[in-house]
Design a protein that fits this description.
By secondary structure, the chain is an all-alpha fold. It contains 12 helices and no strands. It has 2 domains: about 60 residues, Arc Repressor Mutant, subunit A; about 140 residues, Tetracycline Repressor, domain 2, CATH 1.10.357.10. The protein is about 80% helix and about 0% strand. α6 runs parallel beside α9. It is globular.
Length: about 210
């Protein structure tokens, strides 16, 4: 039994196992058969769950396909909500990302890479991913605003978060283009290198 399941109540362990089985099976079927050719009925049949159970875990077919993304950002938002946000905000946000990536399960990087590669050829997933990115950006802004209080500069905060998201997006695209080289550690290294280049990018000549 994995460490992240061991301490959970039985009901929560079963729920998490079902959620993971849906996500794993969805990626396998979408990759083998094609995203459009695989129905929710196919997925539910393969996992031996009802559609009602599916919709208790995921909102849509697109949602289950992008489960690796939501796993990361749900954990990230929890980290931002509980971590100390000292010093420059951009560094604090990156530090929370380092912590979150380091805590993801050992198989997460493989699932994330498969998700990214799948998304590249499916317009519906690209659109859903863009919408999810916007939701996550708003959630980060809201979380930091709540922790910082009424005196926060809204424009500066939003700009900082947008830069953070853009740097992550750049690093993850580079990692995907490399075929996930180095796994999770390779992705974390690219994140560090990309954030280090932000000052250079902001002052680069036209």
């Amino acid at each position: 039994m994995s460490d992240d399941l061991r301490d959970l109540p039985l009901r929560e362990r079963k729920k998490l196992r079902t959620r993971r089985a849906l996500a794993e099976t969805a990626l396998r079927l979408f990759t083998e058969r094609g995203y459009d050719a695989t129905t929710l009925d196919d997925l539910c049949y393969a996992v031996e769950v009802s559609k009602r159970t599916f919709f208790r875990n995921y909102r849509s077919k697109e949602d289950v396909a992008l489960a690796a993304d939501s796993d990361l950002w749900s954990a990230y938002l929890d980290c931002v909500a509980t971590s100390k946000l000292d010093g420059p905000l951009l560094e604090a946000l990156r530090g929370a990302l380092d912590t979150t990536l380091g805590a993801m399960d050992t198989d997460w990087a493989r699932r994330f890479l498969t998700t990214r590669e799948l998304s590249e050829g499916v317009p519906a997933l690209q659109a859903h991913s863009l919408g999810y990115c916007q939701e996550t950006t708003r959630a980060i802004v809201d979380t930091v605003t709540e922790r910082s209080g009424a005196g926060v500069d809204g424009v500066r905060l939003r700009l900082t978060v947008e830069i953070f998201v853009a740097a992550w997006h750049t690093a993850s695209l580079h990692w995907t283009a490399q075929g996930g080289q180095g796994g999770r550690d390779g992705l974390m290294k690219l994140v560090q290198e990309t954030f280090a280049r932000i000052p250079e990018a902001l002052t680069s000549p036209a």
